[in-house]
DNA sequence: TGAGTTAACCTAACACTGTTCGGTTAGTCG
DNA sequence: CGACTAACCGAACAGTGTTAGGTTAACTCA
């Protein structure tokens, strides 16, 4: 059918359904044809609203990262770093399946850079040199992205019994989904606290 | 041509050529047909030596991670952590293009787990509780993998002039390849030092 | 009101991808 | 010498992202 009375597609709708598919089926579970199908449309029609799949993923990533809050440096820079990192982690852990895409970088996404720039500026204002500020901001990103991708929750989904005999030191309990989630959060908090304290 | 006098293929040769392609053309630059071509062979022939592409990538990842050294805890645990992290980073930064694949994790790769297990055991021996040891090991991995994937070198490869006006705080010099490499290393070292000191 | 343009969809196709099936033959073992 | 296996190849399948060209509804403007 040609041109419907009310448009079926819009960039926003495409992005939101695409993100839903990613959340549900993983990053590899998203194909343009499947996306089109769930939108009640043929695959080719998407390209009137989206330049390319990669661009679509980038847009989705940006919209996720735009939820990150870097205000909080009014108090002091340590607290600001911690808030910023928590906000980042919250954004990423809401949509963990998109993290592998972020790994393809460029970290040169607009939103990321804007936030990095603000972070950097706040650190400089707090008395760090430009170079130090850059490295501290980078270190914070290490913890954020590292925790997003090497998480216990998404890591070992198979049967705990497989591990317990081969790796005597590792605790089987880590592998239960509930415990893993909590452990992820606590590990992140510990790493963050240690990092900020150690500066 | 059928069965040649001396076999053209072996798992080792396949892995090494595949890794060379990944290093040269990126993770997406590796296809079974291209790999076969560079081995002087048809794509189907690979499947006599390799179960699947994913398995091949896993094997490559393992062989890279098996270069990681977790001995060094004889001295003290802080030094051990630092050495371990450096060794990890060295392994990953030699083949940065495979990092996106690792992001798809399961982190449940054999080699990773073995090393994590040893790390964990050493921390427990040093007096940390099992839970603390797990979280510390996780934190170390955050920094290692975070630095591997959100690096300045691989991040912004485009023209520095694009950035300098839009992001006033960021220093243009960060974007020059040479400086970026050095900055990556220093950022990693700073994050690592701060983390270990803060424990 | 009616003509022309544009916007939004479609079908069909292209060049890829990973993977499998069935062949063909060189080497090896009894 | 015969049977068998190991190692390759050609062709195909289902799936991928993406593009070209067509069809028609909705909008614009005289």
UniProtKB/TrEMBL annotation, chains A, B:
GO terms for biological process: negative regulation of DNA-templated transcription; response to antibiotic. The keyword Isomerase does not apply. Pfam families: TetR_C_1, TetR_N. The keyword Transcription regulation applies. Keywords: DNA-binding, Repressor, Transcription, Transcription regulation. GO terms for molecular function: DNA-binding transcription factor activity; transcription cis-regulatory region binding. InterPro entries: DNA-bd_HTH_TetR-type_CS, Homeodomain-like_sf, HTH-type_TetR-like_transc_reg, HTH_TetR, Repressor_TetR_C, Tet_transcr_reg_TetR, Tet_transcr_reg_TetR-rel_C_sf. Residues 8-68 form the HTH tetR-type domain. Residues 31-50 bind DNA. It comes from the Bacteria. This is Transcriptional regulator, TetR family. It comes from Lentzea albida.
């Amino acid at each position: 059918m040609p041109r419907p009375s009310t448009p079926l597609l819009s960039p926003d709708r495409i992005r939101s359904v695409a993100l839903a598919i990613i959340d549900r089926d993983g990053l590899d579970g998203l194909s343009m044809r499947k996306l089109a199908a769930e939108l009640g449309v043929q695959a080719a029609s998407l390209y009137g609203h989206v330049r390319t799949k990669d661009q679509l993923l980038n847009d989705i990533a940006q919209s996720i990262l735009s939820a990150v809050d870097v205000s909080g440096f009014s108090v002091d820079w340590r607290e600001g770093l911690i808030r910023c990192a928590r906000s980042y982690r919250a954004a990423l852990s809401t949509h963990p399946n998109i993290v592998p895409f972020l790994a393809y970088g460029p970290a040169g996404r607009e939103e990321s850079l804007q936030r990095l720039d603000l972070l950097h500026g706040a650190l400089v204002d707090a008395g760090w040199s430009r170079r130090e500020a850059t490295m501290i901001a980078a270190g914070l990103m290490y913890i954020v992205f590292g925790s997003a991708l090497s998480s216990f929750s998404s890591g070992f989904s198979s049967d705990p019994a497989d591990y317990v005999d081969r790796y005597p030191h590792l605790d089987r309990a880590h592998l239960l989904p509930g415990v893993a989630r909590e452990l992820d959060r606590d590990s992140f908090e510990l790493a963050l606290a240690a990092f900020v304290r150690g500066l």
